[in-house]
Design brief:
Radius of gyration: 39 Å
Number of strands: 0
Shape: elongated
Distance between the termini: 126 Å
Helix content: over 70%
Largest sheet: none
Oligomer: single chain
């Protein structure tokens, strides 16, 4: 009895499956066959049903005759009898589309999709032709460089090398000294080498002219083989001489409008940078930054690189920034790029990396500068000048908490120095020790201000700022106490010794800004003939942004009146 029941059930299902297949066959649609296969996947008629479904789907794809239709068929039925035909039709559509586009990228995509297709040889030939056409008008150095990297003995190689040379020089010429030096390095046999060198010579000479070094500029042009290529030099020389004559005027108002009237000359300041008293040296570094001259750069760089007292190095760095910002942009870039080229040739010490970092930093190349700062940084002996610079950079970027972290490190440095510096009446207190304590107190106070500024901003770690503040306050307290002790001993030995709080130079420079501003306000009416040139010189070369702003405004007013 059970056997008969089982047989009956089997016959029933077989009959049902046969009826379902017949219904699908009668309907003869893809949907009907899909329904049958879903309900009877293991039926004896599943194979012919699958075959008919594939025929119907392929027929539908042929009717649509689109890339999408054939792709869907191949994805759904990769083993179908019609798969090869569908692949060929898909390849044909894509080949025609690439041919219509006619671009190298279209042919590359076609070959990537059909690397072994029937059209591969023709597609490769058409790709080569498209690349040839595109390269004939290419203006992207990256594309040309990539082509040359793979070109081997390609007959187009020389043509592409020439075009790349032209384009890289054009970019360098439009960009400035940094790219011109790079061009000379990257294209040692470049056809524009002489022109690049002439442009660099022009920038060098302009630096001499704006620095008032007229005789040096004349001698440089006369002696240089490329001097005759500076066709505009006579006109530039005439302007420089006119400027020097105006600045040499005996008119008190004309003298009062010039920054040089208030400064010690470069020679005296360079001599002061070698003083035995660090205070003399940092004040000389501060004043040297008021000389907008290419001749001020190397003494300041040397002081920044070699001085032991952090305040000397700090003022040297700030003065470098002042000079580079006041020089014409092309001149400043040349002076920095020229020094970077020299420094990179002998890079290897922390001192050189630090100098490279400073030059990059002061010309706005912060990403590259950060790398060089990291190379020079010693966590066991942190540089307070670098830490202070990091605080300012992070403040400018509105990274308040990061600025506070750097300020805390600076405070810890100041606290450590104040704790370790020896202050004793035995044998006398060395002047250098008192000046080091002055640097510790100055940097500790700076750290307190920076952390207080960070507190005003929204930060994620207010509790950390509390500990930072305590550390900075402790550093101020200790460093100021040790400084007071040291300076008391110094005064016992020499009552006339200058103290850390001496601000004579800064006060003189501040007063000079006020006097120059007042003079420039008056030159338009009192010195009408000299006024335009004096105002132009102040607008373009004065180290004070305030003075430059006043000069620009007065010059605009003169122009508006037609004077």
């Amino acid at each position: 009895m059970p056997r008969l029941l089982t047989l009956a059930v089997c016959l029933l299902f077989t009959g049902c499956a046969s009826q379902a297949y017949q219904r699908a066959k009668d309907a003869d649609t893809a949907e009907a066959y899909r329904d049958f296969l879903r309900e009877h996947p293991k039926d004896d008629m599943a194979e012919p049903a699958q075959a008919r479904l594939e025929e119907l789907e392929f027929t539908q794809a042929q009717k649509l005759h689109t890339v999408l239709a054939y792709k869907r068929f191949l994805e759904a039925y990769p083993e179908a009898t019609q798969a090869r035909a569908a692949g060929a039709l898909l390849e044909g559509l894509r080949f025609n589309a690439a041919k219509e586009a006619g671009t190298a990228s279209a042919w590359r995509q076609f070959l990537a999709e059909h690397p072994e297709g029937a059209h591969r040889e023709e597609a490769r030939a058409l790709l080569a032709e498209a690349e040839r056409q595109e390269l004939s008008t290419a203006d992207d150095p990256k594309r040309l460089t990539a082509f040359l990297r793979e070109a081997g003995d390609d007959p187009r190689r020389q043509e592409m090398e020439t075009r790349l040379d032209d384009q890289m020089f054009a970019q360098a010429k439009a960009s400035g000294a940094t790219k011109l030096f790079a061009y000379l390095k990257d294209f040692p046999a470049g056809q524009h080498r002489e022109e690049a060198k002439a442009l660099l010579l022009s920038m060098e000479v302009e630096g001499l002219l704006v620095s008032g070094l007229i005789e040096e500029a004349e001698a440089r042009v006369k002696a240089h083989p490329l001097g005759p290529k500076l066709a505009d030099f006579p006109a530039r020389l005439a302007r420089a001489k006119a400027a020097r004559e105006a600045l040499a005027s005996r008119e008190p108002l004309a003298q009062a409008s010039s920054v040089g009237f208030y400064l010690r000359d470069l020679g005296d300041l360079q001599q002061a940078l070698g003083s035995t008293d660090p205070l003399d040296r940092w004040q000389a570094a501060e004043e040297l930054g008021q000389h907008v001259s290419v001749r001020a750069l190397d003494p300041l760089l040397n002081a920044f690189r070699t001085a032991r007292n952090p305040l000397i190095r700090l003022y040297a760095l700030e003065s470098l920034q002042t000079v580079l910002r006041a020089l014409p942009r092309a001149v400043a870039e040349y002076e920095v790029a020229m020094r970077l080229e020299s420094l990179r040739e002998r890079a290897g010490s922390a001192e050189v990396y630090l100098t490279i970092a400073a030059l990059l930093d002061l010309t706005g190349q912060l990403e590259q500068a950060s790398t060089e700062y990291q190379r020079s940084y010693d966590s066991g002996n942190p540089d307070p000048v670098v830490l202070r610079r990091w605080v300012k950079i992070r403040q400018e970027r509105r990274q308040s908490f990061s600025a506070a972290v750097a300020a805390r490190q600076l405070a810890l440095w100041a606290h450590g120095l104040a704790k370790e510096e020896v202050v004793s009446s035995e044998g006398g207190v060395p002047l250098a020790s008192a000046r080091q304590l002055c640097a510790a107190a100055e940097n500790a106070r700076f750290a307190v201000e920076a952390i207080a500024q960070a507190r005003k901003e929204a930060t994620e770690f207010p509790e950390d700022l509390n500990s930072f503040e305590r550390a900075a306050a402790d550093a101020v307290k200790l460093s100021e106490a040790r400084l007071a002790d040291a300076e008391l001993l110094l005064r016992e030995q020499n009552p006339s010794v200058r103290l850390c709080r001496d601000q004579q130079v800064r006060e003189r420079l501040t007063e000079a800004v006020k006097e120059r501003t007042a003079a420039l306000e008056a030159v338009g009416t009192k010195l009408p003939k000299l006024a335009p040139l004096l105002l132009e010189l102040a607008r373009d070369r004065d180290p004070s942004p305030q003075v430059r702003s006043v000069a620009a405004a007065r010059l605009s007013a003169l122009s508006a009146r037609g004077d």
